[in-house]
Design goal:
- The complex is a heterodimer of chains A (116) and B (111).
- By secondary structure, chain A is mainly β.
- Chain A has no helices and eleven strands.
- In chain A, the strands form two sheets. In chain A, strands 2, 4, 5, 6, 9, 10 and 11 form a seven-stranded mixed beta sheet that branches. Chain A has a four-stranded antiparallel beta sheet with strand order 1-3-8-7, with no helix packed on it.
- Chain B is mainly β and 111 residues long.
- Chain B is 0% helix and 56% strand.
- Chain B has no helices and eleven strands.
- Classes of the chains: A mainly beta (116), B mainly beta (111).
- Chains A and B meet through strand 5 and strand 10 of A and strand 5 and strand 10 of B.
């Protein structure tokens, strides 16, 4: 399996621009997570999906952030308009929802976002 | 509220043993994870504990005490490649898999 795939790997943009981050989870995984990691706040869960349905978006910082999962193999995280404080590494992770398994999250390589 | 505490940094010597502690206060508990994260890379799964006791996996072991809200990760026979951050994470009360991460412990291995 190719693992969780994220694109782009690096993004540099100017304040006010729209940013779209993409994620392809591991095939067969029912759960998809979006995280943000900064030096100041560490790793934060933004939103997660189960079977393409958003379950908890309480970690989304504000209305400028939105996430969608139109099908089981694709999700996007959009920031519009972007601000310098959004600069961070954004990770996507997926996991299996099987009960009784040693469930774990498999992380993608991350997207390093810099907003100037 | 929910809180996970772990030391910010630790230093140990190659070949030695190190124990990284994690304490948590959450509204519910449904499992505790340890992840390893090398600088500039994504976290990778190390261990999962849901019952009290010690789980051993090669050079790494993880311990859980639910009554004390406490876990530790034990690394034996340290190697230089073990220099990384170690993240403690707790799954909350619902089975919908919400996971809270600690800020991580940066482990430095000296030759």
């Amino acid at each position: 399996d190719a693992g969780v795939i994220q694109s782009p790997r690096h993004e540099v943009t100017e304040m006010g621009q729209e940013v779209t981050l993409r994620c392809k989870p591991i095939s067969g995984h029912d759960y998809l997570f979006w995280y943000r990691q900064t030096m100041m706040r560490g790793l934060e869960l933004l939103i997660y999906f189960n079977n393409n349905v958003p379950i908890d978006d309480s970690g989304m910082p504000e209305d400028r952030f939105s996430a969608k999962m139109p099908n089981a193999s694709f999700s996007t995280l959009k920031i519009q308009p972007s601000e310098p404080r959004d600069s961070a590494v954004y990770f996507c992770a997926s996991s299996s929802g099987d009960l009784g398994a040693r469930e774990t999250q498999y992380f993608g390589p991350g997207t390093r976002l810099l907003v100037l | 509220g929910q809180n996970i505490d772990q030391p910010t940094e630790m230093t140990a010597t190659e070949g030695a043993i190190v124990q990284i502690n994690c304490t948590y206060q959450t509204s519910g508990f449904n499992g505790l994870f340890w992840y390893q994260q090398h600088a500039g890379e994504a976290p990778t799964f190390l261990s999962y504990n849901v019952l009290d006791g010690l789980e051993e996996k090669g050079r790494f072991s993880s311990f859980l005490s639910r009554s004390k809200g406490y876990s530790y990760l034990l690394l034996k026979e340290l190697q230089m490649k073990d220099s990384a951050s170690y993240l403690c994470a707790v799954r909350g009360v619902n089975r919908d898999d919400k996971i809270i991460f600690g800020k991580g412990t940066r482990l430095h291995i000296l030759p």
